[in-house]
């Protein structure tokens, strides 16, 4: 067996301690490309999340409008049982203490509520309740182009006046009612 005549010492500059290990660069951090990829992914996820959030808020506002119409119809039926007539009203004519907005205050409300006689009938026999989204006297920032104005009459007919107009409550209007 042959032994080398000259062998470097283990701690000498010719034989460094970390020989055989991969060298790390002296500056640690992220490259611009890595940061751009991460920002693009975060932006994409935020975009999907914001769209979902907007749809959720829209559905909850519709629930607010529907619930306000149901509550108002119960009050109208109670009034009818005592007076043998329904009560017309809007924000200008606040009759019988009926609430003309869908939430606790007009500013927080998404819908303005109104009551009038059904088309082609008298107020004594039929009342049509309407929930108008984002009118001048409630939250003007709320708009619902899909459903528009929600209506409910004392005969149980539910309609809407948005892009889904003309579809009565049932399979075609599940989005609104």
From TrEMBL:
The chain crosses the membrane at residues 30-50. It comes from the Bacteria. InterPro entries: N_methyl_site (IPR012902), PilE-like (IPR031982), Pilin-like (IPR045584). The keyword Protein transport does not apply. Residues 1-22, 158-177 are annotated as: Disordered. Keywords: Membrane, Transmembrane, Transmembrane helix. NCBIfam families: IV_pilin_GFxxxE. This is Type IV pilin protein.
């Amino acid at each position: 067996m042959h032994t080398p005549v000259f062998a470097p010492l283990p701690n000498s500059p010719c034989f460094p301690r970390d020989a055989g290990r991969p060298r790390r660069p002296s500056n640690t951090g992220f490259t611009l490309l890595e940061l751009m990829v991460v920002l693009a992914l975060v932006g994409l996820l935020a975009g999907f999340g914001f769209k979902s959030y907007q749809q959720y808020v829209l559905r909850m506002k519709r629930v607010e409008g529907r619930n306000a119409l149901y509550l108002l119809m119960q009050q109208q039926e109670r009034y009818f049982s005592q007076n043998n007539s329904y009560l017309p009203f809007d924000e200008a004519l606040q009759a019988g203490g009926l609430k003309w907005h869908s939430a606790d205050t007009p500013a927080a409300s998404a819908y303005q509520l109104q009551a009038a006689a059904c088309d082609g009938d008298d107020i004594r026999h039929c009342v049509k309740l309407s929930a108008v989204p984002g009118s001048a006297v409630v939250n003007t920032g709320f708009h619902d182009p899909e459903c528009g104005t929600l209506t409910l009459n004392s005969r149980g007919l539910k309609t809407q006046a948005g892009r889904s107009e003309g579809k009565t409550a049932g399979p075609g209007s599940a989005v609104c009612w």
